[in-house]
Structure formats: C-alpha cells, structure tokens
Inverse folding.
C-alpha cells in the first residue's frame, strides 16, 4: 500500500470533487447521510449503552457512506442497505476502532482537567441542562485549545483507518499507522481542506444568514430555515462524499481490494 503526497491545492479539489459526486446522485446520497445521522442519534438515546453503541457503530457507518460515494464514482447503483452492509467487512476491527476512538477522546477530555480543573469535562459529560448550565459560563478557550492539540494526532490516525480496515483488511494497528502516515505526508493539503470546510460549512452560511436577517428582520425562523435546509440536504452529503475523494486521491482507486 502506498500513499501519495499531494500538493496543498488538493485539499480544495477534494471538496469540489465531493460536490461533483453529490450532483451525480443527490437523492440517495442525501438519504444515506440522513439515515447515518438518525442511526447515530437513535443509538445515543439508548439508556446506559447509547454513547458506546454509537461510537462502536460510527466506523462501519462511515465506511458505508464512503462505499456509496465509491459506487457513485464508478457508476454503480447504491441503496440504503449499503450504509449497514459495510459491517460485514472486517467487523471486529471496525468495532475496535470505534471503541479505541471513544477511549482516546475520553482520555483527552480527562487530561483537560489539568488545564481548567474539570470545567470542560463536566460540560461535555453533563446529562441535563441544569448540569450544563452550572458550568456554561466558564471560559473553555484554553482547555479547548489543549484538547484540539491532543486530538489532532488521534484524528490523523483515525481518518482513513475505517476504510483501510474494511477495504484492505488491515489490523487496528496497521490501519491507524497508515492513516497517520498518509495524513502526515499530506498535512498541507489537509490544512487547505480544513479551511475549505470551514468556509463551506460555517463562514458562507453565516454570511448568508446575516444578509437574510437584515433583509427579513421579522422572519428569523424562515431565514434560518432557508440556510439550514440546503446546508443539511446538499452541503453535508457533498462533504461526506469528499471523504471518499480524499481517500481516492491519496491511496488510488487501484489500491482498493
């Protein structure tokens, strides 16, 4: 397996390619993303095991979305069962990746108590609005920066790991290793990619919403719906599709077994 080292502009091209894939089958890609969200939300509300169940399922579900994007790229039909069918490909490793990511995330949040005395931890772990309100006025800036710094290498190791485990049958250790190396080799492209996602998902929608609120000051709910609807139904599926185009350009279509 060989990862390609791409120029920084590749990060923006992944986003453009994601929108191009979405335009080839908007209904099904949109439906699959909505099903992904509803599945994760449903698992999270399960008593006692909700967060664990969702974390275990996310790697397999993400592979299902990438498989759908790959099929669209190849002109192969896609359907809703594809979202869940990916669990047949190296399921133990996918479940282990989900559990490991949850442990790493909780571990990093736990370490943030060294910075702010546990305020961010209590906010993130709050089970009710009352518990969250007790610490919501705290300044999380330093703790958030600390958590972001520690989670960055975790995200690098996890970014391609589910696809590598499912499509290449790699072990947990090897999938995390090759994912981290691929991200490290292309950190400039990922920096551009991250800035592009920030522009597409936050900056442009916020500017559009600001303009609509100025034009329609008495229709804030309507203006918000005008911005959120395309963001959920068009932009989000295109971004999910860009996860596959990122993988495709770095590892190559011919590398997939």
């Amino acid at each position: 397996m060989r990862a390609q080292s791409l120029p920084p502009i590749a990060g923006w091209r992944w986003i453009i390619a994601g929108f191009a894939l979405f335009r080839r089958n908007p209904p099904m890609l949109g439906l699959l993303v909505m099903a992904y969200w509803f599945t994760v939300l449903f698992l999270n509300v399960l008593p006692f095991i909700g967060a664990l169940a969702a974390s275990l399922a996310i790697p397999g579900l993400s592979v299902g979305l990438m498989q759908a994007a790959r099929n669209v790229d190849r002109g192969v039909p896609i359907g809703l069962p594809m979202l869940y069918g990916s669990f047949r490909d190296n399921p133990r490793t996918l479940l282990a990746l989900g559990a490991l990511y949850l442990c790493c995330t909780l571990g990093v949040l736990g370490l943030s108590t060294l910075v702010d005395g546990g305020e961010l931890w209590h906010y993130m772990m709050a089970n009710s609005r009352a518990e969250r309100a007790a610490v919501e006025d705290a300044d999380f800036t330093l703790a958030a920066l600390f958590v972001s710094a520690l989670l960055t290498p975790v995200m690098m190791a996890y970014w391609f790991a589910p696809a590598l485990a499912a499509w290449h049958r790699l072990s947990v250790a090897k999938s995390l290793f090759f994912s981290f190396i691929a991200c490290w080799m292309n950190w400039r492209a990922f920096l551009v990619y991250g800035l592009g996602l920030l522009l597409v998902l936050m900056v442009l929608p916020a500017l559009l919403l600001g303009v609509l609120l100025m034009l329609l000051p008495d229709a804030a709910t309507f203006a918000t719906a005008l911005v959120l609807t395309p963001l959920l139904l068009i932009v989000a599926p295109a971004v999910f599709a860009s996860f596959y185009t990122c993988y495709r350009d770095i590892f190559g279509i011919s590398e997939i077994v």
